[in-house]
Specification:
Order of helices and strands: EHHEHEHEHEHEHEEHHEEHEHHEH
Mean pLDDT: 96
CATH architecture of the largest domain: 3-Layer(aba) Sandwich
Radius of gyration: 21 Å
CATH topology of the largest domain: Aspartate Aminotransferase, domain 2
Distance between the termini: 34 Å
Structural class: alpha/beta
Low-confidence stretches: none
CATH superfamily of the largest domain: Type I PLP-dependent aspartate aminotransferase-like (Major domain)
Bound molecules: pyridoxal-5'-phosphate
Number of strands: 12
Number of domains: 2
Shape: globular
Strand content: 5-15%
C-alpha cells in the first residue's frame, strides 16, 4: 500500500539535496566551528554559506540570522527576549487568538511572570480584527506577535498592515512565518517586522533546526546564553548538519515560488471541490486568502480524529487540527476562536500538501475520506442528521 502524505504542515520530508548535504557534513564536516584548525574553519565556512542562503530567503542581512533548534525556541527567544529587554515591571504584549501553541503557551507563561498579555480576536473566516488591534495599541504596548499563515486553516494574517500599525505605536513585532516558506515571498524589509521565526522541518530541512530573524536594531536579551555563538544571541555549539540542511532547503524554497503556489493552489481547489461535496461538510477558514496547499474541512457530527485514523488504515496521512495538539484532548482553540459551530468543532480534518504532492494523490485521498466519512456515519446514524 503506497502512502499518501497530506500532513506537510506537521512536518515535511527532507529534500534529496538536503539529505545529501547533511550526510556529507555528518561524514566530513564534524569539527567544531569554533575550533581554529582547518576542519573547524571548514565547518565555520559551511555555517556562513547556509546563513547567506537563509538571509537571502528573507531579504535579511546575514548578521540578522540566528540559528536555533526549532521555531518553538525562536518564538521563546523572541518574545521572552523582547519582553526582558524592556526592563519594565509590567510590559504589555499582544498576540492573536489563532497563534500556534508555541506563542499561545508563552503568552500564558509571560502572564504568570507578571506581563500583561492581551489576545486579539479573529472573525469567522479566521482573519485578525485590525480595528481591535489598533484600539489595543492605543495603550502603550511593547511586543506584538502575529502568525503569518495559520497552521490549522492556512488563513493569512494581514501582517504588513498589522505590523505598520503596531510599529507606528512603538511596539516591536514578531512574525511566526513557519507555514509560509516557499509559498509566499518573504521580505522582512517589506514586512517591517523586528523578529521572525522559521522552522526547518516545515520546509524540507531536518528537525532540530530553526531560525530567528532579529532586525539589527531590535531590542533583545538573549535567552540561551553561553560561549558567544551566533553573535552572543544564542549560545551552544552549532548544529552544523542542521544548519547546512536548512541552508540548502532555503535556497530551494526561495526559487520557483509562483510555480509552487500555482501547483498548491490547484491541489487546494480540488480538495475543496471534492471534500465539500460530502454532505454536511464545512470549510474552516476563508475560501480565499489562505496559504495554498492547506485545506481544513469539518464533517458534521463525527470526530476528525476518527476520520484521520480510518484514512490512516488506507495509507492516507492526515491530521485533525494541528499535529502538535493531536495527542491532547479537547477542541482546537483556533476553530473555537473563529466561532465554528459546536457540531462541526470536533469534526475538523486538515489536509496539507507540498510541492511534490500530485493531483492523483489528492484524488485518491479524497476517495478514501469520502468512504471513511460514510463508514463512520453508518456506525452512528444520528451523526449526519
Ligand atoms: N508555529 C507554527 C505556525 C507551526 O505550525 C509550528 C509547528 O507546528 C511551530 C510554530 C513550532 O515549530 P517547531 O516544531 O519547529 O517548534
Amino acid at each position: 500500500m503506497a502512502m499518501i502524505y497530506l500532513d506537510n504542515n506537521a512536518t515535511t520530508r527532507p529534500l534529496p539535496a538536503v539529505r545529501d548535504a547533511v550526510m556529507e557534513v555528518l561524514g566530513d564536516g564534524f569539527a567544531n566551528p569554533s575550533s581554529i584548525h582547518g576542519p573547524g574553519e571548514s565547518a565555520k565556512g559551511l555555517i556562513t554559506e547556509a546563513r547567506a542562503g537563509v538571509a537571502s530567503l528573507l531579504g535579511a542581512r546575514e548578521t540578522e540570522i540566528v540559528f536555533t533548534s526549532c521555531a518553538t525556541e525562536s518564538i521563546n527567544a523572541a518574545l521572552r527576549g523582547a519582553v526582558a529587554a524592556t526592563g519594565k515591571e509590567r510590559p504589555r504584549v499582544l498576540i492573536t487568538a489563532v497563534e500556534h501553541e508555541a506563542v499561545h503557551d508563552i503568552g500564558q507563561w509571560l502572564e504568570a511572570e507578571g506581563v500583561e498579555v492581551v489576545v486579539i480576536p479573529v472573525d469567522g473566516g479566521g482573519v485578525l480584527d485590525l480595528v481591535r488591534l489598533e484600539q489595543e495599541l492605543r495603550i502603550e504596548t511593547d511586543v506584538v506577535s502575529l502568525i503569518y499563515a495559520n497552521n490549522e486553516t492556512g488563513v493569512i494574517t494581514p501582517v504588513e498592515e498589522a505590523t505598520r500599525i503596531a510599529r507606528a505605536r512603538g511596539a516591536m513585532v514578531h512574525v511566526d512565518a513557519v507555514q509560509v516558506v516557499g509559498k509566499i515571498p518573504l521580505d522582512v524589509a517589506a514586512l517591517g517586522c523586528d523578529m521572525l521565526s522559521l522552522s526547518g522541518h516545515k520546509f524540507h530541512a531536518p528537525k532540530g533546526i530553526g531560525v530567528l530573524y532579529l532586525r539589527r536594531d531590535a531590542r533583545f536579551r538573549p535567552f540561551v546564553v553561553g560561549a558567544g555563538q551566533e553573535g552572543g544571541r544564542r549560545g551552544g555549539t552549532e548544529n552544523v548538519p542542521g544548519i547546512v540542511g536548512i541552508g540548502a532547503a532555503a535556497v530551494h524554497m526561495a526559487a520557483g515560488i509562483p510555480e509552487r503556489r500555482d501547483h498548491l493552489g490547484r491541489l487546494s481547489g480540488r480538495l475543496e471541490e471534492r471534500l465539500l461535496s460530502i454532505p454536511d461538510s464545512r470549510l474552516n477558514g476563508l475560501p480565499a486568502g489562505r496559504v495554498p496547499g492547506t485545506v481544513n474541512v469539518s464533517f458534521r457530527g463525527i470526530e476528525g480524529s476518527a476520520v484521520v485514523l480510518t484514512a490512516a488504515r488506507a495509507g492516507v496521512c492526515l491530521s485533525a487540527g494541528s499535529a502538535c495538539s493531536a495527542a491532547q484532548y479537547g477542541g482546537s482553540h483556533v476553530l473555537e476562536a473563529m466561532g465554528v459551530p459546536f457540531e462541526y468543532l470536533h469534526g475538523a480534518v486538515r489536509f496539507s500538501c507540498c510541492e511534490t504532492t500530485s493531483l492523483a494523490e489528492v484524488e485518491e485521498a479524497c476517495g478514501v475520506v469520502e468512504t471513511a466519512v460514510a463508514y463512520l456515519r453508518s456506525m452512528d446514524p444520528s451523526a449526519a442528521k
